[in-house]
Write a structure and sequence with these properties.
single chain, alpha/beta, five-stranded parallel β-sheet
Length: 236
Amino acid sequence: MKIVVVNGSPRGKSSNTQIMADALLKGAQAAGAETVNVFLAEKEIKHCLGCFTCWLKTPGRCAIKDDMAGVLEAIEGADVLILASPLYFHTISGMLKVFMDRLIVNGDPHFAKTASGESRHTKKAGAKAPRLVMLSNCGFPERSHFQAMSHWVQRVALHMETEQLDEIYASQGGMLSMELPSVATYLQWLNKAGGELVQGQALSKETKEALAQSFLPDEVYIEQANQYFDRVLSGQ
């Protein structure tokens, strides 16, 4: 099995998003998966021009010459594609959105209706889209802030005609880089989640419940976060 993480954090390898991805991939590797980690922060990927050259003039080939072709090669043959991003304004980062827009090169311009009667573009003949996992963290203490992102990735799976395996969200994300027992336990559960993904299934109920736990009570977290910001703003 091949599992690919596309990390859309501008902080790349030093991001809290990557702390989560590393833990997940270690579990997948231990279970025998081939893993690839793509950092969009290290790539030059320009905005889609909306020219439809990749559909109508040079099918499957984009008119833009940048690093996107190399990223597409890296994810080719993936069984699971993990879209990793910090929460920015209640959805994915702009960096990841630009990458997703450029995936139009893998599509087909023709329309077809889903079983529910909604139109979407078809896949290329013989094409197989990887199953999707959404991975994200945010600085807020409540998990409700991921609602728009969750809806977005569900729509992406529908449009790509693939299965959305799972979503993994960590609130209080700034704590992921701290050496705390609760964080260490969380990362161990991410290891387990990686192994479960290799088995080709959604995460177990036990794993989902463990990954939904906060590192600190909300009130304590908010108080400590505000104290930290006050210290930084006062120059202490």
